[in-house]
Amino acid sequence: MPELRTVLGEAGFADVRTYVQSGNVVLNSRASPAKVAADAERVISERFGFDVSVIARTGEELAEVVARNPLADVADDPKRYQVSFLDAEPDPEAVARISDLALDGERLVAIGRELYAWHPNGVARSKLWAKLASAGGLGVRATARNWNTVTTLLEMAS
Questions:
Q1: Residues 6+ apart with CB under 8 A from 138
Q2: Which of 12, 13, 48, 158 suits 28 as a labelling partner, its CA being 20 to 30 A distant?
Q3: Considering the domain boundaries, does residue 30 fall inside one?
Q4: 154 vs 3, 14, 35, 45, CA distance in Å?
Q5: Residues 21-44 pLDDT 10s
Q6: In a domain, 64, yes or no
């Protein structure tokens, strides 16, 4: 992560900070989220030699994601509550097919470019999570973070 911070800083991004080892980055840029994502993907590919999908949100967008919290009434363990950030709105029919995999109290809510997923029994044996984690046939690029990470990133961005 230190090298990632350095590379992104050298690419012109300001105030680059990372959180844990899973590629969470908070930075400042005047560019659009789509441009930030494309530039970060290019820099990572050039420097580290592998392709990775980057999904970017502004601080305001991230604040909206947290404020919405459509499963606040049931999601009482932030480690089992996931938000998938998508690069585009998914096809509603694809979301419905994936939602059908929810079992044992699991819930899935799609709002715009985010999917909120509650896994009360964890993700280890969840068919819903397995499908979401593999991009789930949504036809869009995605990355997921648990609620603790989402709220920490918002704090860092504030």
A1: 86, 90, 91, 94, 95, 98
A2: 48
A3: yes
A4: 22, 17, 20, 26
A5: 778 999 999 999 999 999 999 999
A6: yes
